[in-house]
Amino acid sequence: MSIETAKFTADMIQTHTILIPNMAPVQFAVLKAALRSEGVHVEMMDNTGSEVAQLGLRYVHNDTCYPALLIIGQYIDALNSGKYDLEHTALLITQTGGGCRASNYIMLLRKALANSGYGNIPVVSFNTSGLEKDSAFPLSYTLLEKMAAALFYGDEVFALRNQVKPYEVTPGETDRLCERWYTTFDAWFHDHNFYNPMKLKKHFRAIAESFAAIPVHKTEKVKVGVVGEIYVKYSPLGNNDLIAFLESQDCEVNLPGVMGFVEYCIANYSLDVSFYGGKKLIRVGADSLLRLLSRIGEAQSSVLRSYGFYAPGPFRELMKKPDGIIHLGAKMGEGWLLTAEMVELIEDGYANIVCAQPFGCLPNHIAGKGVINKIRERYPNANITPVDYDPSASRVNQENRIKLMLAVGREHLNSTNS
Amino acid sequence: MRIGLDIGSTTIKCAVLEDDGTLRFSTYQRHYSHIVEHCASILKTIRDDYTGEEPVFFALSGSAGMGIAEACDIPFVQEVYADRVAASRRNPEADCIIELGGEDAKILFLTNGMEVRMNGSCAGGTGAFIDQMATLLKVDPAAMDEAALCAERTYTIASRCGVFAKSDIQPLINQGAKTGDIAASIYQAVVNQTIAGLAQGRAITGNVLYLGGPLTFSKCLRNSFDRTLNVKGICPEDSLLYVALGAAYYADQKRNLSDVIARIDEYHSQVSFTSLPPLFSDREEYWKFHMRHAKAKVPRVPFDEAHRRVHIGIDSGSTTIKLVVIDEDANILFTDYRSNEGNPVPMVKETLEKIYKEYPFVQVISASATGYGEELIRNAFHCDFGLVETVAHFEAAKHFLPEVDFIIDIGGQDMKCFRIEDGAVSDLFLNEACSSGCGSFLQTFAEAMGMDVEEFAMQGLFAAHPVDLGSRCTVFMNSSVKQAQKDGATLDCISAGLSISVVKNALYKVIRTSSAESLGKHVVVQGGTFYNEAVLRAFEKEMGIEVIRPDIAGLMGAYGAALYGLNHAERMAKSSLLTKEELSSFTQKVQGVICQGCGNHCQLTINRFQDGSRYISGNRCEKPVTGKDADESLNLYAYKRRKLLEYVNHPGEGTSGTIGIPLCLNMYELLPFWHTCFTELGFRVIVSPFSSRSLYQSGQGSIPSDTACFPAKLSHGHIAWLAEQNPDAIFYPCMSYNFDEHLGDNHYNCPVVAYYPEVLNDNCHELEGIRFILDYINPSRKRDFESRFSTILKREFPFLKKRQIKAAIEKAYQEYDAHMADIRQKAEEIIEAARAQKKRIIVLAGRPYHIDPEINHGIDKLILRQNAAVISEDSISDRITKFPTSVLNQWTYHSRLYAAAKYCCKEADMDLVQLVSFGCGLDAITTDETKEILREGNKLYTQLKIDEITNLGAVNIRIRSLFAALREREDLL
What we know:
The complex is a heterodimer of chains A (418) and B (973).
Chain A: H1 12-15, E1 17-20, H2 25-37, E2 42-44, H3 50-59, H4 66-80, E3 89-94, H5 105-115, E4 123-126, H6 141-164, H7 173-190, H8 197-212, E5 222-228, H9 230-234, H10 242-248, E6 251-254, H11 258-276, H12 280-306, H13 315-318, H14 335-347, E7 352-358, H15 362-367, H16 369-378, E8 383-389, H17 395-417
Parallel strand pairs in A: 1-2, 1-3, 3-4, 5-6, 5-7, 7-8
Chain B: E1 2-7, E2 11-17, E3 23-30, H1 35-51, E4 56-61, H2 66-72, E5 76-77, H3 79-90, E6 96-100, E7 105-109, E8 115-118, H4 127-137, H5 141-149, H6 162-174, H7 179-199, E9 208-211, H8 213-217, H9 219-229, H10 242-250, E10 254-255, H11 257-269, H12 283-294, E11 309-316, E12 320-326, E13 332-339, H13 344-358, E14 363-370, H14 374-381, E15 385-386, H15 389-400, E16 406-410, E17 415-421, E18 424-430, H16 438-448, H17 453-461, H18 474-486, H19 491-511, E19 523-526, H20 533-543, H21 556-568, H22 580-584, E20 588-594, E21 603-609, E22 614-617, H23 623-626, H24 636-648, E23 657-661, H25 667-680, E24 683-687, H26 693-699, H27 710-725, E25 729-731, H28 751-763, E26 771-773, H29 782-796, H30 802-836, E27 840-845, H31 853-856, H32 859-864, E28 868-872, H33 892-906, E29 910-917, H34 923-936, E30 942-946, H35 952-972
Parallel strand pairs in B: 1-4, 4-5, 6-9, 11-14, 14-15, 16-19, 23-24, 23-25, 25-26, 27-28, 27-29, 29-30
Antiparallel strand pairs in B: 1-2, 2-3, 4-10, 6-7, 7-8, 11-12, 12-13, 16-17, 17-18, 20-21, 21-22
Helix pairs in contact in B: 1-11, 3-10, 4-6, 4-7, 5-7, 6-7, 7-9, 13-14, 15-21, 16-17, 16-19, 17-19, 19-20, 25-30, 26-27, 27-28, 29-30, 33-34
């Protein structure tokens, strides 16, 4: 049996508003600017509230992962809201094509739309695996380039915000600066102003400089890293506003960037060939793309460091982190990247870690909870707490667990100081 | 002076210390969710008696205290951390603390790298759980402890979460197992749960401290921990107060108590929690609603000589026993509804005696039994008919509303919903163990609040802001309630919220409907829980339809059973029900034994009655009853097991060394492949045996994620077993990809099957010093596989020759193909034989690992008992070519499932039953799709959710209902 909902055809790019989930609010805001500058009218959903989860529960199998439930609930809630012209609205969803349930979100969304009377709303698949050929998002070279730049900018602004805000002298100043940057990005994308590595580096510098200029009062704070399933890791809707909570508890938070996940996906194409054989061309292509992105990433990191900020190491170093804990063949969901990020965070001083996952997340049984013992063995100061998110897991339990982790973190902090 | 206040989920504790650390005052009380009031009153006492207006060191702790602390500017200490602070002062020698609270379980490792563990959002609360179990057993917690101390045996009870355990205990009660034995089993389950869920591979040794209510009050629980951990733990003085003490020690800021009390009072007046619209806008609306439902009545006539020829229906439910007597026109003469007090037999006896005594003229024409305890009642009292409860409920509802097309029954423990199409049950939904609770949950909650369930429900009818509690399992609800309490929700709002939750659970979790239309136009709601008008109203509101609730909502099963007798008995028949005289000499003796007939080791309960007859329950096959081996010639699952044993029993020579292979997850299918490959290379292959309880427990300690599926968790036991055999290497490769059978768009394994070797490698201490080969391989690309796997083998065993390896791999592929072909050939034989004997064929569809008896709990045998043949999904999936599905079809095992479903649709005598392991994330997707495929082919869909422990009672209802529905469909043709 197969459900027929409207397909997304290339000409709809001009006529339709495309809704996107608000997975990583900062990065996606920049992404939105990039897409709009290419004439794609995207809107990021910002609807929250209990109705969202309720609609998700209503139209999606309750044991499906929490992100699917939230995203689908959010879409249906948005369509119900009357804010959008239903004749000219399309919904975008990403597909990684991996062996995890997430590749099925699009099917679940279509099913939910058909059941809620929105079968006429086209769903557009954003993927680079050649899935959904008749309903895929048309990707041009310029667009891809702009989107990559957007992720770099977004990651940088987000990383800097997280490092500056907890220490700012004037409350709210960091957030105001972020807002200013979104406007600047709009202008940059419109002027088609860049994309050679030199230009990008200049921009990275401008961003870093502006954050460095914010007056701060440096005190010792508990440094917390957040890793996990990509949606609940970033999305305030998915993780009950985790970053805000951690900051309210007087912590500095570090979430490894979205670009890392993109690089991880690209690396897996190459790794697959090296593990199992296959087209050499894929491997060569993926490797050179990865090299390009890594070069830009390293340029960005060195800029950050030059302004006294923390920046992660090069991606190829990140790939070595899981060695002896998990193999690079574990590629479903966040796979080895999750382990790699935990190790990197610990080595770089963020030994207190929240590992966020949807309740029952399969890949995280392996690469999250499955490796924590091993990591603790290797890094005795590692202070990791896995937190599950789902529609009814109560916030009080989650925050209680996190507070426990923080109490231990604070103790470590005091003992190293004294 | 220092004050520490600990607000837990059910209790509030306070410690007042002198500056020198001596304890001046302490209190421990239940707060019945009136947290704020209790908090204020305790502080007032302390202010008046001890501190006065002097500022004192003060800190708050406890899971329910966070909100107050934030709002009232009181320093907060995380409770586990507080424990640690207290222990380091009072018991510096302690290595490990185990603390069980109302809903929390914690383990603290203090020495050699401090670590703290708390129960995850899935593991149920322990104290509240023990309370709930005590209620179920009809004893208070103290009596439960006492009873447990003289237990003779323990039953296996799921250690995963409270709700699971509850559904294991209920059948035991129904089967008449002894209270003491059950109580001891409950404590043991709590111990297992704590260790498996929290220790996560880290050994608990040295000086152990027991803290918290349950461990303080129950000696048996402490003993169970001591025994299981092989330690001698101590329960220190003030063990209930450690968190409060820790908070007091830790307090580093002074507060004036009067100020704090004022702030608490102010906080009390603010209300903030997610709320839903009220159930009724005003009294008038309620009254209209009430009158409408009052109309749905069954005629009642006096029980006199004019109506002496009667039919009796007995519904032995999970917590209650219901009995209805009707005349030959289906009028009700007599009803009885009571709690079964753990053993239904004496209750039924009492009621029957009453009938014989008060109505001596009675002539019983038929007596029928239904419900969980159906077989026991039927055997004990010689009833004429026994019917599965779904059939009974349908009979009753049909009599009430002939055009009924949907029935929903919410009872104490279980929820049953079924759709009726063309006069037969077409779709059946039973609550899985995880969303049960229903009625009895409301009841337990009411009792926790210190009132009875009617009173509690009435509270909610006019609540202005019902709390939004979500729609998940009751364990989650407990913590949602906690959250709401923290946010200041009042009792009426919680009551209404709980009623709405029960309804949401039924609609979205069990029936999984998205709109009222999909239920049908003629809905009958029944079961005791619907007497609760708040639940009834919530149901109508949620679905936006008006439903029928018969006035005998709680008796429908018994009424239906009586009707069944009326429709099926000969007019002038005399029932075989025990007569008055026979009843007076009636006795029942209960004995529990473990069957040694086969590897399942069923826990049998043997009931002996005065006439020498006996009734055995708990068995999966007929062997303990007939003494003969079950005929398994039509069971492909048994055939597959035999085939695997042939490999296990032919380990090979061992000139090249020994290789251990764990029989877990995908190995149930790939064993022929690897076994052949390695024996061809001259290895002796040691294969771990089929799983068993003890095998599972031997590996339980190293499981890092307690929510992973049971088949995955079992693999830890297999590794532990293999490590003991001391092989030269253990081989268990990671496989992102499976074989490509061209049924789907890709051929992945699920993430757990693909990468579980990594988890074993990182967590199983047994593997230390043993070579563990877990390379990533992909057998679907044969040529690449050959070169890559040769490299791996050469790396591990340099003495092997290239050519030799190549030949072995070739043989392995041949063997695998031959094995699969043989399974498919055997399936064909079974199908032919079944058709020749006019038997139904059930495709018991799961994954390769579902053939393991510990995983499938002998369900294949249960189906065989229904006079049917059993085949597997992979044995017929090759009869179908790839077809479009509405989900992404990218996992090999799932593609087989869809194909098998499709094939079933073509065969009139073939039906599919899907086995779903709890925690299988992918099955959230496959179940819906399989159901759709079957529905399009006009087939019934049956899903059996299985876990570590499975309530075979519920499984049996499903299977029997399926067969009853199939028979009904057949009759209609």
